[in-house]
Design brief:
By secondary structure, the protein is an alpha+beta fold. The protein contains 3 helices and 5 strands, in the order αααβββββ. It has 2 domains: 78 residues; 49 residues, no CATH class.
């Protein structure tokens, strides 16, 4: 009889502990899914950039065609950093009273001076804006 009473007292405690464990597992799964989603979107974006650079395609067109709205928001949240390692500094040019930075090479990228975001590229010596 004492065992039965003891089990009745333990049941709510065990149930409570199992509930806490269940909540912890659910939170861990949410975090893992979020991390996985971020990594997957980042890889998709990098893959699209590599394709665009290699095939001379417009990144914005492919982005709109192949990424969903949630993935597009992720791109906006990322900070664009211009790589200046190995003294690959950008040149400046003024077009229509607007100053831009650009990579002085074939297939070079043109950047907006104010936002540092890509706005076009150089193809066959011509400045082509997106």
């Amino acid at each position: 009889m004492k065992t039965s009473e003891y089990l009745k007292e333990m049941y709510p405690k065990i149930n409570s502990l199992l509930g806490e464990i269940d909540n912890e597992v659910k939170e861990s799964i949410k975090k893992i899914k979020k991390d996985y989603s971020i990594a997957l979107v980042d890889e998709k974006i990098n893959f699209l950039k590599i394709i665009c650079d290699g095939e001379e395609l417009n990144f914005n067109e492919l982005k709109n065609k192949y990424l969903n709205e949630k993935e597009k928001k992720f791109i906006k949240e990322q900070v664009n950093i211009i790589d200046v390692s190995n003294e690959n500094l950008l040149d400046t040019i003024e077009i229509n009273n607007q100053v831009y930075f650009y990579e002085n090479k074939e297939k070079g990228i043109i950047y907006d001076k104010k936002t540092n975001k890509p706005v076009g590229r150089i193809t066959n010596g011509e400045y082509i804006f997106d």
